[in-house]
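[step 3/7] fold_predict: job queued, chain A
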Amino acid sequence: MASKKQQKRRDKSLRHGLGRHSFEYVSVDEEGNEIVQEQPDKPARSSAKGGKGKAPARGRRAPKAPQPPSLKRLGKRGALFLPVILLLTLSQKNVSIDARIMQAVLFAVVFVAIMWLSDSLIFRMWTKRQAKEKAAGRPGSAGKD
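[step 4/7] structure written:
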């Protein structure tokens, strides 16, 4: 809550037309006199520029639609984490090299499987939610494909 001093300041600025973004355009002529000019009109925003239209009713932006799980994306993620997994498993000293390599491969396979399951779960949940919204006839769900 604003203090009394802040409330008085706000009331004074609103009373005198000095709102948050309100200011005058002034130019100076040859004699040094200030001439108050009209404010230039703000250009109207076109809906074609944004392409999205209205924001969702809740005030939050629409969540990004998840992509279906693919082997290409999964391979890229696995390639990112495979060197880390190899470094961690190969840094063990008391285990033979064969056991370390097998452990790295096992960790990589489990990691990729978990990524695949999480991607497919997220995508399935999203498609079910979209189907429910379309069946319920909610206005915001029609253009989100």
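[step 5/7] annotate
Strands lie at 25-28, 34-37.
The helical segments are 4-15, 47-50, 71-90, 97-136.
exit 0
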